[in-house]
Design brief:
The protein folds into 2 domains: 147-283, 3-Layer(aba) Sandwich (Rossmann fold); 289-541, no CATH class. The protein is 43% helix and 7% strand. The protein has 22 helices and 11 strands. The chain has helices spanning 9-40, 65-77, 114-121, 157-173, 195-198, 201-207, 238-245, 271-284, 289-303, 317-323, 331-343, 354-359, 367-377, 396-405, 412-415, 418-421, 428-441, 452-463, 474-485, 493-502, 522-527, 547-556, and strands spanning 129-131, 147-151, 176-179, 214-215, 227-230, 254-257, 309-312, 385-387, 409-410, 444-447, 541-543. It has a 5-stranded parallel beta sheet. Helix 7 (238-245) links the parallel strand 5 (227-230) and strand 6 (254-257). The protein is globular, with a radius of gyration of 30 Å.
Length: 557
Amino acid sequence: MKEKMQWPWPWRRRKVVVVVVLRKLLTCAICVIALMGLLSVRVHVFPSSKVSDLTDPYKLPTVTQQHELNYQKLSAEKKWTQELTPPHLSKEQAPPHLSKAPLSSHKLNGANGSLDFEKLWKQPSNHDFVPCVQPGSNYTAPDESRGYLLVHTNGGLNQMRAGICDMVAVARIINATLVVPELDKRSFWQDTSNFSDVFDEDHFINALANDVKVIKKLPKDLSSATKVVMHFRSWSGLEYYRDEIASLWEEFQVIRASKSDSRLANNHLPPDIQKLRCRACYEALRFSPKIEAMGKLLVDRMRAYGPFIALHLRYEKDMLAFSGCTHGLSDVEAEELRTIRENTAYWKIKDINATEQRSRGYCPLTPTEVGIFLTGLGYPSNTPIYIAAGEIYGGDTHMADLRSRYPILMSKEKLASVEELEPFTNHASQMAALDYIVSVESDVFIPSHSGNMARAVEGHRRFLGHRKTISPDRKALVRLFDKIEKGLLMEGRKVSNRISEIHKKLQGSPRRRRGPVSGTKGMDRFRSEEAFYVNPLPDCLCKRVSENVNASTASMR
C-alpha cells in the first residue's frame, strides 16, 4: 500500500496562514466592490415626473422643452421623486408600486378575472374614422378685411372655447379681422384671467393665418371709432351673417359681439366652414404652455396608478343652484341653493321643481349614485378615479359613500403640491383647463351631467379616435336608484346587468351627430339638436380608405 505523504508541520502551518490571508483579502475586495456599486447607482423610488410625450398630432399639443425642464425642476425641488409616498396621501391612495401591499393586489381584475379587466378598459372601435379637417381645393387665403370683429365671450371655460371657435368661423364668413377674444370676467366664477393666461395666444394667431387674420389688440386709431354692438342671433346660418351682419360694414369699421355662445348653426353650413371650426377647436386653440405642462404632469402622476377613470363630478354649488336639483340635500342646503339662484340675475328660471327635474334626467348624479353606477358597470373598488371638478358641494359629507366604495379618489389638489398649483389657484378657467386635459387623456371618461365640459370633452375624445366615454342615462338610472333607496331592489347581479345593458351603446362609438327632435319648431328645434362640438362626425371625421380598397379600385379602372 502506498503511504500518504505527510508535510512537515512548519510547512503546513505556513499554508494555513496563506489561505486565511487570501480569504480576508477576497472578503475586503468584495466589500469594496459592493460599496462602490451602492455609491454609484441612483435608486428612484417614485415614477419620473417627466411630462408624457404625446406624439399623436391631434392630441393636446406638446409644450416646449424649456417648460418641461422647468416643471421637472419644480418637481425635484418639491422632493416629489424622493418621497416614498406624498405626505398628504393615505396608504390607500398611494400608487401600487409604492404601497406595501403586494403588486398583484392592485390588478384591476373583476369577478371574472382578466376577461372583465379587458372589457372594462377596452376602447370602442373607431371603425376607421380619422380626422379630416383640411379645406377643399377651392379654399383661399382670407380676403381683404372689411373691418374688425371684437368678441366678448360668456360662460365658463368650455362655453367660451366653443364660442371662440364659432367666432373664428363668423370672422371668415364676414371677411373680418378678428381681435383676440375677451374672456368672461363677470360670470359666476369671477375669473380675472385674460386670453393669454388660458390659451397660447401666439399659436392661435399663427395657426389661423391661412383662414382668418387675427390680431392681439384693436389698432389705436380705431379705439375711439364708433362701434356697433350686436347680440348675434342664436344658431344662425350663413345667410344671416353674409346678408344681415356683413351689411354693417357699410356704416361701421368695428362690430362687437356681446355674446359668443351658440351663435352659429350646428348643421347646414359649407363643409369648409365646418372644418375651420374643427381646426380652430382642436388645432389652434391650445392651452397656454404652463397649463399644458401642469396638465400633462397630472396625467403622468395618474398613470402611476394604472388605467384610470376621469369622473366629471358636476356636484358643485353653481350647478346645483342653477339646475334646482336638491335630491339628498338637507333643507338648509336646499334653501342656500335657492337663495343663490334668486340672487343671480342672469339665471332666468327661478322657480324649479326639484323632483320633476330629477325624474326627467336633468339633474347631475349625486356622488352616492355615481358609486352605485360604477359598481353596476363592474369597476372594482381599487379602480383609480380622477375627480375632474371644482369644490364638491357639502365636501366630505356628500363624498363619504363614493369614497367608501372607491378609496383611490384623486384630484389635482391631491396629485400636486400647493406650490405647484399656486399659479392656477383662484382662476376657475385655468383650474378647469387642468381637469380638461386629464379628462381628454384618461382611459375612460364619465360625466355625471351633460354640461358644457362633458360635451366638450366627449367631442374631443371622439375626434382623437373615439376614446371610451360612458354617458350615463340619468333618466333610466333615477328609476333604478329610487327602487334601491326604497328597498324595492337590492344591488347585485340584476342591477348590474340592467345598468350594463342600458349603457351598452353609450360608450363613445362612432355615430353621426343627432339632428333636431321630431316635432320641435323654432328655437326649440335648434336647441334639441346635438351640439357641433359634442360630435364632429360627419364634418371633421372621415372613413380611412384602406390600401386594399384603393388597389382593387385601380385594377377595375
